[in-house]
Specification:
The complex is a heterodimer of chains A (121) and B (108).
Chain A (H helix, E strand, L loop, with lengths): L2 E5 L2 E3 L5 E8 L8 E6 L5 E7 L6 E3 L7 E6 L4 E6 L8 E9 L6 E5 L3 E5 L2
Parallel strand pairs in A: 2-11
Antiparallel strand pairs in A: 1-3, 3-8, 4-5, 4-9, 5-6, 7-8, 9-10, 9-11
Chain B lengths: L3 E4 L2 E4 L5 E7 L7 E6 L6 E5 L3 E2 L7 E6 L2 E6 L9 E6 L7 E2 L3 E5 L1
Parallel strand pairs in B: 2-11
Antiparallel strand pairs in B: 1-3, 3-8, 4-5, 4-9, 5-6, 7-8, 9-10, 9-11
Classes of the chains: A mainly beta (121), B mainly beta (108).
Chain lengths: 121, 108
């Protein structure tokens, strides 16, 4: 059974940092692109970042470029999101999601349960 | 960036009735469109990809259609567990993949 379990969320002050983790199991983690998708309270879904199987390609939504860094450790079956210079508008539930449809498609076939990040003083 | 627009924002439907949800892309996305269902407090669940292919385990009452810029998700006979928010997502031009704003299907 595919499982994605996020951790690391919490309350942080504006300008602060946080590192999210996602532990994957039930599939060959190193064979899949992975992504972070967020959802602000009461709002819709927003893709944040993604990373290729071997970490050689990474992409970010414009609003987080230069502040967030996605990474992975295939030996530990883990995905990470380092978030720096956090802003109030980064407040959201952050989901770890697996890419489906490779190589032609990019939809999300499995999602974690999410971890809440609150940026507030 | 491709903008996805969903309508209506809220759809009121009685159990057993048909629900039709729309998704429009600001430019052609071919058939590179997915649909998700999200219930309160839960993660989204993939329903449809490739505009019309049901994901594993998705009941046949869910169907997707369309190509180019106009897409439809149809739920043929609404069950109690289908009341939720539905999102479309394009993956024809990425990054970024982009989502629609969602349609809430509520009990009439």
């Amino acid at each position: 059974e595919v499982q994605l379990v996020e951790s690391g969320g919490g309350l942080v002050q504006p300008g602060g940092s946080l590192r999210l983790s996602c532990a994957a199991s039930g599939f060959t983690f190193s064979s899949y692109w992975m992504s972070w998708v967020r959802q602000a309270p009461g709002k819709g879904l927003e893709w944040v970042a993604n990373i290729k199987q071997d970490g050689s390609e990474k992409y970010y939504v414009d609003s987080v470029k230069g502040r967030f860094t996605i990474s992975r450790d295939n030996a530990k079956n883990s995905l990470y999101l380092q978030m720096n210079s956090l802003r109030a508008e980064d407040t959201a539930v952050y989901y770890c999601a697996r890419r489906g449809g490779y190589p032609l498609g990019y939809y999300f076939d499995y999602w974690g349960q999410g971890t809440l990040v609150t940026v507030s003083s | 960036e491709i903008v996805m627009t969903q309508s209506p924002a809220t759809l009121s439907v009685s159990p057993g009735e048909r629900a039709t949800l729309s998704c429009r892309a600001s430019q052609s996305v071919s058939s590179n469109l997915a649909w998700y269902q999200q219930k309160p407090g839960q993660a989204p669940r993939l329903l449809i990809y490739g505009a019309s292919t049901r994901a594993t385990g998705i009941p046949a009452r869910f169907s997707g259609s369309g190509s180019g810029t106009e897409f439809t998700l149809t739920i043929s006979s609404l069950q109690s567990e289908d009341f939720a928010v539905y999102y479309c997502q394009q993956y024809n031009n990425w990054p970024p993949v982009t989502f629609g704003g969602g349609t809430k299907v509520e009990i009439k």
